[in-house]
């Protein structure tokens, strides 16, 4: 395989075909890929360790010629892990071609001879129809109410429940059309696509660059309502006890789990992250990895320890997972699992797969969830989940 410097500043615009897009792009930087040189699929509680092992063996056997030698050059796999230990299907895809841009560098990595692909024009659907997914809005409201009762009874502190929505377009969905729409409206988010899971997430589970790791923790949300200005919404969010509690659980779970791997750690926040559809309480955690057992853990090993954070699971983690299995009533698939990329040195970026849909032909299954605490109100959570589905809906409809 070869990595060469290239000129040009396009990423998503270079994807040649309507399906099979691979993407991890934020505000014009990141990686896109196409073609499949290799694929690894796995499920079950050992999925992270199995994926890590497969990736190490795959890269050990490669003959790499890399002109740049920075994170994201050389061998790269796009990663999307299932939320749940069961059921669930996780996937690593090694593209035939990767195009990357970061810190003033631009590069092209190819595996094998990876012949040129025909470039097909991007297609826009003219009609999209929506219907209930596995969990309707009514079912979701009832599940939220039941979870809130459990928390009021002191059974757990926080749980994240989600529901889904089906969208059917009049033509096969062009992944590039959705990705371009998401990137245009959500430059603060990581716009991703792996094996048909497409979205724009504002939440970074973990980035590893050598011994430095960082994470963006989000929890606590508001959305435009009651004619309030953006500043009024932000001030209300910062002073909401319910949202501050929800956020604190998410930061604490991340810090506690990452601390044993780190020599130093610091937390900045919370502040308000403003997006077009919602605003979140946001904290950044930065750490320096220490040597454990003679080396620093890979990104996938760290992802295994961190997933699921309280932003998608809850607190205490095991109780929250049990409540999700009992009350949510659907298979999340890869929604709310780690998604991103890894390179041959164990570096890379894993976001949390939020604000997304699983796309298959003309159909997209959209997901959104909300963190619940004892003070949560079921109707508000239904509105919040609706607001969280807007990015994908608007991108699909071309708004
Ligand atoms: C579970 C989701 O969002 C999480 C991330 C940020 C804020 C959240 C909240 O305030 O509820 C959720 O924990 C989702 O978008 O589906």
Automatic annotation (TrEMBL):
<dbReference type="GO" id="GO:0008909">
    <property type="term" value="F:isochorismate synthase activity"/>
</dbReference>
<dbReference type="Pfam" id="PF00425">
    <property type="entry name" value="Chorismate_bind"/>
</dbReference>
<comment type="similarity">
    <text>Belongs to the isochorismate synthase family.</text>
</comment>
<protein>
    <recommendedName>
        <fullName>isochorismate synthase</fullName>
        <ecNumber>5.4.4.2</ecNumber>
    </recommendedName>
</protein>
<dbReference type="InterPro" id="IPR015890">
    <property type="entry name" value="Chorismate_C"/>
</dbReference>
<feature type="domain" description="Chorismate-utilising enzyme C-terminal">
    <location>
        <begin position="139"/>
        <end position="388"/>
    </location>
</feature>
<dbReference type="InterPro" id="IPR005801">
    <property type="entry name" value="ADC_synthase"/>
</dbReference>
<keyword id="KW-0413">Isomerase</keyword>
<dbReference type="InterPro" id="IPR004561">
    <property type="entry name" value="IsoChor_synthase"/>
</dbReference>
């Amino acid at each position: 395989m070869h990595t060469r410097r290239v000129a040009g500043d396009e990423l998503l615009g270079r994807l040649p075909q309507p399906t099979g897009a691979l993407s991890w792009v934020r505000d014009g930087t990141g990686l896109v890929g196409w073609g499949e040189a290799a694929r690894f699929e796995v499920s079950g509680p050992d999925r992270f360790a199995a994926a890590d092992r497969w990736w190490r063996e795959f890269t050990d056997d490669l003959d790499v010629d890399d002109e740049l030698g920075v994170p994201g050059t050389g061998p790269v796999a796009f990663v999307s892990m299932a939320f749940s230990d069961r059921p669930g299907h996780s996937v690593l895809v090694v593209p035939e071609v990767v195009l990357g841009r970061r810190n003033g560098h631009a590069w092209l990595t190819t595996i094998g001879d990876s012949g040129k692909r025909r470039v097909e024009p991007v297609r826009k659907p003219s009609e999209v129809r929506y219907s209930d997914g596995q969990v309707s809005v009514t079912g979701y409201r009832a599940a939220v109410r039941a979870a809130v009762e459990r928390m009021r009874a002191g059974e757990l502190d926080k749980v994240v429940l989600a529901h889904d929505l089906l969208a059917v377009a009049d033509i096969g969905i062009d992944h590039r059309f959705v990705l371009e729409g998401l990137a245009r409206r959500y430059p603060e988010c990581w716009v991703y696509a792996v094996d048909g899971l497409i979205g724009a997430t504002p939440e970074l589970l973990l980035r590893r660059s050598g011994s430095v790791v960082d994470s963006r923790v989000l929890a606590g949300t508001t959305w435009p309502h009651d004619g309030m200005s953006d500043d009024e919404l932000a001030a209300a969010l910062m002073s909401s006890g319910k949202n501050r509690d929800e956020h604190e659980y998410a930061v604490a779970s991340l810090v506690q789990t990452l601390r044993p791997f780190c020599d130093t750690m610091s937390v900045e926040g919370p502040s308000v992250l403003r997006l077009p559809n919602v605003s979140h309480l946001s904290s950044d955690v930065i750490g320096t990895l220490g040597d454990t057992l003679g080396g620093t853990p890979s990104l996938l090993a760290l992802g295994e320890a961190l997933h699921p954070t309280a932003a998608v699971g809850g607190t205490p983690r095991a109780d929250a997972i049990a409540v999700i299995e009992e009350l949510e009533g659907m298979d999340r698939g890869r929604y709310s699992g780690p998604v991103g990329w890894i390179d041959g040195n164990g570096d890379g970026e894993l976001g949390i797969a939020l604000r997304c849909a699983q796309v298959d032909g003309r159909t997209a299954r959209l997901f959104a969830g909300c963190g619940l605490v004892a003070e949560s109100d079921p109707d508000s959570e239904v509105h919040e989940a609706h607001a969280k589905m807007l990015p994908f809906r608007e991108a699909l409809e071309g708004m």
